[in-house]
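Data card: per-record layout.
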Amino acid sequence: MTLNPHGHRRAIAILVMDTDGTDVVQLTNSPDWDIEAAWSPDGRHIAFYSAREGNFEVYVMDAYGACQVRLTNDHEFDGFPDYRP
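The structure for this 85-residue chain is written out next.
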């Protein structure tokens, strides 16, 4: 977890935007880190790594940020999520 200059927690969210940098939309809003987003080959889902429940786990959500579901549940490093065709 990172801290801002005032010593408070700083969350890291997953965002999407148009290729020209406009229309930025924040997909996640946890109190901790949501990182390492990976798009599914069909563009319908995004897998990501999050510390929202105390330790890093792999999650998946739909492309609009809904239905965020934890896929792993252990205290070991799960590796960063990725899709393979």
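Known properties of this structure: The chain has a mean pLDDT of 87. The CA atoms of residues 41 and 84 lie 8 Å apart.

See the next section for split statistics.
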